[in-house]
Amino acid sequence: MTGTDRRDEVLDVVVVGGGPAGLTAATYLRRFHRSCLVLDSGHSRARWIPETNNCPGFPQGVSGVDLLRKMKQQAASFDARFESVAVDSLRRDGDLFVLRAGDAQWRARCVILATGLSDNLPQVPWVEEAVACHALRLCSICDAYEATDTRIGVYGPLADTAAHGVFLRSYSSRVVLLPSDGAGAEDALAQARAEGIEVLPAGGVLEFDGERCSYRLPDGRVETFDSVYPYLGARTTAGLVASLGAKLSDSGEIVVDRSQQTEVPGLY
Ligand SMILES: Cc1cc2nc3c(=O)[nH]c(=O)nc-3n(C[C@H](O)[C@H](O)[C@H](O)COP(=O)(O)OP(=O)(O)OC[C@H]3O[C@@H](n4cnc5c(N)ncnc54)[C@H](O)[C@@H]3O)c2cc1C
Predict the structure, then answer these.
(1) Which of 59, 166, 250, 251 is most buried, by the most CB atoms less than 10 A from its CB?
(2) CATH number belonging to the domain at 121-230, selected among 3.30.360.10, 1.10.1270.20, 3.50.50.60, 3.40.50.720
């Protein structure tokens, strides 16, 4: 049965997003005997993880796809329901929330937004392949351990890469900044250099040979790395709640209280 067939139903909670956060919420909600539906558009950031080695309970590591499958299985075992849709609007109707995806509609007393974020990635066709073989890494907190003592490139605007380079310097003495621009970053640059981080000229191009990423400098020289971390920022899906009046931070994140509730009662 789809959402369009259940117009009279009022759910306790609709969870928007079926990544690790949304699936965890669904498992707990069902175990609190709350009716719960997960609406998910299927683009979890976790599906990019070739193998995570910091997930408690998986000493041999687990891929993001496997982890998502197991977490969904666990939520489903408590009768959480799922629909594969992208929610395109969220509004209030009295005390209830109304969510829509195309023609389908659901009503709920509470909504949990577990929509994650999307990385801004280099605009090249080989990104997915490079992430799969760790040539490109997207989360230094998650996997810099695996890059310990290797040659690490950090690609992006100089001001951002310098700070991340300093963090990565605690994993390897061979950290190199690959600036996509060099504007207004003198302090960051000085700090990076003080940490022994090499800085290549700005304006080079990232390349991938099927195993490793390289940086082709403007003068034609090519430098190759065991891993490259791009730092190009990320996009949130906070726009979904803007029409409800939930407060956003200057950087576009949803402002919540200590209970993770937004300024809209019932919206978490
Ligand atoms: C390459 C890589 C390696 C990583 N390695 C690790 C690691 O080793 N350990 C670790 O802990 N973390 C790791 N991470 C980070 C981890 O993947 C994220 O922290 C995690 O996925 C965040 O979970 P989430 O549920 O908040 O968001 P997500 O997993 O991004 O899930 C959000 C979900 O919401 C859905 N959604 C968004 N908008 C809508 C909408 N309007 N309607 C319906 N659905 C919507 C999306 O399709 C998506 O399925 C890694 C990430 C990457 C990219």
Answers:
(1) 166
(2) 3.50.50.60
How many whole angstroms separate alpha carbon 58 and alpha carbon 38?
25
For each successive 10 residues of the chain (268 residues), what is the average pLDDT?
A: 65 98 98 98 96 95 98 98 96 96 97 94 96 96 97 93 93 96 76 92 95 96 98 86 86 90 95
Which residues lie across from 178 on neighbouring strands? 155
Looking from the CA of residue 47, the nearest atom of ligand 1 is 17
> How far is the centre of ligand 1, averaged over its atoms, from the C-alpha of 131 (Å)?
15
Best residue among 37, 39, 44 to mutate for probing ligand 1's pocket (most ligand atoms within 8 Å of CB) is 44
Q: Which atom of ligand 1 is nearest to the CA of 115?
A: 34
* ipTM of the modeled complex: 0.98
Does 90 contact ligand 1 (Cβ within 6 A)?
Answer: no
Alpha carbons 167 and 145: distance in angstroms, whole number: 12
131 Cβ closer than 6 Å to some ligand 1 atom = yes
CATH 3.50.50.60 domain extents, the chain: 3-118+234-242, 121-230
Strand 227-230 to 222-225 pairing: unpaired
86 lines ligand 1 (CB under 6 A): yes
Give residue 38 CA to ligand 1 midpoint distance, Å.
Answer: 15
Euclidean distance between CA atoms 212 and 203, whole angstroms: 20
Give the span between the Cα atoms of 111 and 114, in whole angstroms.
9
